Amino acid sequence: MESYKNAANEAEKMILKFIEDRMVELTIDEKLLSKIIKVQETDINDYLNGRKTIPLNIFLEVLGALKIRPYFVPAEADQTKMNRMFFN
């Protein structure tokens, strides 16, 4: 069970880094993102810095604002680095 918790923590870091990289790519800062999804800038900062867990609805809004599509891929079909590192 502990390996799933560790995997979740590492995956969260990877996802937050991906979101931050995408924000840079699209030249969207925390202030603009907060206006787009109507969430306080301080909350966006807390989410991106791991001080607060992003609620699912806010997470999906962030993905939408950054034009990132969420996909649920079954483990047996996932050949990504994350799957190999954490879930095998």
Account of the 3D structure:
The chain has helices spanning 2-25, 30-37, 41-48, 56-65, 81-86. Helix 2 packs across helix 3. The longest helix has 24 residues, at 2-25. The protein is built from 5 helices and no strands. The protein is 64% helix and 0% strand. The radius of gyration is 14 Å and the shape is globular. The protein is mostly helical.
Offer a quick outline of the entry.
By secondary structure, the protein is mostly helical. Helix content is 64%, strand content 0%. α2 packs across α3.
Helix and strand topology:
Layout: H1 2-25, H2 30-37, H3 41-48, H4 56-65, H5 81-86
Helix pairs in contact: 2-3
The residue fraction in helices comes out at: 55-70%
Strand content: under 5%
Number of H- or I-type helical stretches: 5
Instruction: For the record, give the distance between the C-alpha atoms at the N and C termini, rounded to a whole number.
Output: 13 Å
Contiguous runs where pLDDT drops below 50 for at least 5 residues = none
Shape: globular
What oligomeric state do the depicted chains represent? single chain
Essential attributes:
about 90 residues, mainly alpha, 5 helices, globular
